[in-house]
Each structure stands twice: as structure tokens, then as C-alpha cells.
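Pasting as-is:
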Amino acid sequence: MEMSASLQQFAQLCQELAATSKKLEKRSLIADYLKPLAIKDISRAALYLSGQPFAETDRRTLNVGGSLLSKAVSQLSGADRDAMYAAYRQNGDLGAAAYDLLANRQPMSPTLSLEDVEAALDEIAAAKGPTAKQRLVLDLFTKATPLEAKYLIKLITGDMRIGVKQSLVEEAIAFAYNAEPTEVRRAVMLTGSLPEVTAMAVSGKLHEAQMRLFHALGFMLASPVATVEEALERFSEEVTAEHKGVSEALPKEERVPEQAPADGSTAPLEAVREAQLEDKYDGVRAQLHCGDPNEPERVALFSRNREDIGESFPELLEAFEQISQPAILDGEIVAWNATDQRALPFTSLQQRLGRKRVSREMREQTPVVFVAFDILYLDEELLLERPLQERRSALEAFIGKHAKTTGNQSARGQIDLFPVGEEDRLSPFPRLILAPAIRLRSAEQLDRAYTEARERGNEGVMLKALHSIYQPGRRGLAWLKLKRELATLDVVVTGAEYGHGRRAGVLSDYTFAVKDGDKLKNIGKAYSGLTDAEIDELTKFFKQHTLEDFGGFRTVEPLVVLEVAFNNIMRSDRHSSGFALRFPRILRIREDKPVSEIDTLERAEEIYNAQPDKPQDS
């Protein structure tokens, strides 16, 4: 009987991968490690290197959090709370902290294999309740060396931190087994199972991969632009490059000679007219799967990070159960005013996020719809390589056929066990909405469209090239999002917190305030926008000007002024100001501005009231 690969050797590989930043070296290390292994271990190792305990198509989850893992490490190492916290802060992640804390244990010989890990993960996923799970985790860690425990924790938390993404694992598989990386990536995209595709690559059967529903494809992303001028300039670059590529692929006699525009610019005259213009909705980007002949009533909703979010939006699952035509739609889940046929602000949707149980009251107070703007799969055909124009026609036909059906859903579970009066029941309405799209004709039209989109309560506008194919996980110039920052505020830092990962040893997360008379009122928290050098300087400064030290967080003397930008401002009990900023970003440290001149709570209120998509105050 063939022995399974050693977990200790896998952990040593991870150490080597973390020690180099060279991509080709990482690829070679992975390929050389995989080649001598048995097929089952090759598949296990590939999956674990990508940071996943289970394949995408496997619906199981471990449900093991940091608290449970910390208790196990504390019990095995004898470390108290202070020692645990100090080790975590020094290393930036629990796995590395556990390695340090367990290093003083009695030395032991490695006995665990990758097969043992797989069996343990299966048991942990099946166990009911934290007590049962903790017993299994503790049993696994008891058998592990400190190095093995380090990477078991990283795998369980899904955060390997070895500088290896799944795409690099796919490249290494291709390199090891004489395949093209594109073949491996396509097979993974179709099947949703890296272990299965790894076995196919070893056996030379990648061409046998077939599309399956109910695993998330990568999302195509848009590049942000802040002005109409920038949007048109960058979009013209994309169209020019596309035209040049198409022209160069033609025989010389068929190429169309380039003509310079009359205004002397280098952008092609027709560039603007090759854009499709859509509103950018302020909701939750999602991918919807429905109509599998093998599971006709199954519907799945995936977020951008590929999590299944269907439990938070049961009415959408109910609505799309009525559709038997196999399809994958890309779109946005938005809170919806069915009377006015318009989206509600994101703040209306927030209470729905992450919930496993959604009450009748919540469904009635915050109805949701799926606004579809692309179709990726239809009737057993993947449409990614089709140009946007063709995908749009297919989407329009699909929605024309099925939208009305999505208004006839019946509630699942126990929500309808208790009768309600007719006045309490929402009139049914379609839960599938087609995102309106028009052709762009001029710069003036784009500027006007942005203003009108904001007035409709949406974030901004999207420009999409009509020729663009759908590129999962890519962010290019074929899709642009025009989303101007709402405003900026000059604020003062009142609190500083240690970061995570490589920022675990520095104070990188800042709570800040505005003035309210002679008082300071906190209004937000930000951790992006400053350079590492600026964060290092602020860390030294705040350590010298700490008022109270709570370990991970400290209140500091209000001396440092920052300029922060944000997308929206909303009412919130989270901060003493009664407001919170959405997506705050630090633009700069205002060394030129004294604290006495920072913005006021009155100014924040003005910005709040000036928002075209301001939610109604209750």
C-alpha cells in the first residue's frame, strides 16, 4: 500500500515558498514537490497550497474561528492571554504565533500525512457545535509538530500567507505535467474543482473538463476613473488598442488606414460610440446560478469573494426556482422600491448582509431584486468569449422570457405558517430586473448620465466596450466605472490600532473625529492611503502621545490632522458624531492645518443632506 505524503514535508515546502518573492522559483518549488507524489496527494497538496480545505464545488465548511483555534493553542502551549496576544502581534497571524508558542514543547517525530489532514478536516466539518469541533482540532494539533501546526492553522483559516495564489498553483501544475496554464485555468473554471483538475492534468485529460453550475466563476472588474475626461481618454486607449490588434491580424490589403481626428487628438473618432453606458448600482455584486436539469429547484448566489450569500436573500432563491433554463447571470443585488421602480441606498441593504435567517418583517421593509447586466452561461454554452453586444442580446431575451415568472415566488420554510392580513402582504413584483443600457454618443452625454444616475440613487456610471469579452478576475480598460468621491473632510486622529499581517507591528488603523463646538466627535476609521514610511512615523508619534493603552488599540492625543475622502455619509450609532463615512480613504497628512481648523459636525451634516441618494431619516 502506497504511503501518503508527509505533512511535515508539505509544511517545509510552505516555508520555502514564503521565503522567496520570485514567482518562477515558487512555481519550480511547487512543481518539483508535486511530481514524485501519488495522484491523490498531488490533488490534496494543490488544494491546500491554494489555501482551501475543500474544493469550490464542495458545500462543506469548517466553521472554526480564531477564538477556537486560540484556545487549542493556549491549551497545548500553556500560554496565557497576554502571551498569546504578544505572539500574535509580533507575527501578524495565528499560525506563525502558534509556531513560536509551541516551539518549547517536547520534541516529537512527524507522523501526520496529507491523507490524515483530509480525514481530520472531514471530521471537523461534520462535527456539530464548537465543543465537538474543538476536541477534534485539539486532537489534530496534539499530533502535529510546531511547523505542521503553523500551516494547519493557516489552512483552517484560509490564509496561507506564503505568496501563492491559486493561479500560481495552476501554473505550477501546467509546468509539472506539460500542459498550458490556460488549459488548467479553463478546466478549473468549468469544473470548480482544483483537485479534480489536478488529477486530469496528471492523466493528460484536461480536455475532458465540462461546465458545472453552482460554483462561482471569477468576476470581471472595472477600472475606476474620477472624471469624464479621464474616462474618455482611457476608454479611447482601449478602443485604439483593440482596433490595432484587429487590424494587425488582417492581411495588409484589408487594413483600414488610420485617420487623425480634426481636433488633433490621437483618440479614434468612433471610440466614444463603442461604449455601452449603464448605471453603477449601490448594492452587492453577485453571480446567480439557476436551471440545472439535475437539480431543477436549486439556485445559488455568490459574492465577489465567491461566498454563497443565498441565505441572506431567500426571496431571490425562491424567485429563481421558477426558472428551468440553465443560466449564470452577473449583476447587483439592490434594495428596491417597487412603487417608484428604483434602487434604495446601500444603507437600506446593510441589515440583510451576513444573516442566516431573514424575518418576514425584514423582507417587507427591505425588498430586494437582482439587477442583471451580463449573462455568462446559457443552455449549456459558456458565453465568456462572446462580445458584450452578443451577450447583451442574449441577456435581454432571457429576461424578456423569465422576468415575469420571478414575481410568482412562494416563500420557503416557516415564514408563511402564520397568516397575515392583506394589508401586510407585499404585492408580488418581478425580482429580475434588466439593467438599462444605452450607447454613448458624446462627452456631454456622459457627464449628464453621471448626474442623472446619482439623482436616481445610484453610485455612478459604467462604460463598457461593446467588443469586450468577459474576462473573469481581470481589471482592464474595457470596463470603466465613473464614481466621483463625494467630498473630503479634514479630521483629527483620536485613536490608533495595530494592523494585521505585515502591519501587525505598526499602528496603521486610525479612528478620527470632527469638531462639535469645543468637543471632538468620532466619525470614522480608515487604514488605507498612507505609505509604509508614513505609517512608521505615525506609529512612533502615537506611541509617544498615547493617552490610554488598551493593548491592540490606544487613544491618542488629538494632534494629527488627516484629509479623508469617502463615497457616502450615513446616519450611524457606531460613532459619537451620529454619522459614519462609507469607504473612507486617507488622502494625505495635513501638516499645514492646525487642529483648530478641522471640519465641523455641521459640515458633515451639510454633506449628508446634499447627497442625491441620501436615505430618509427615521
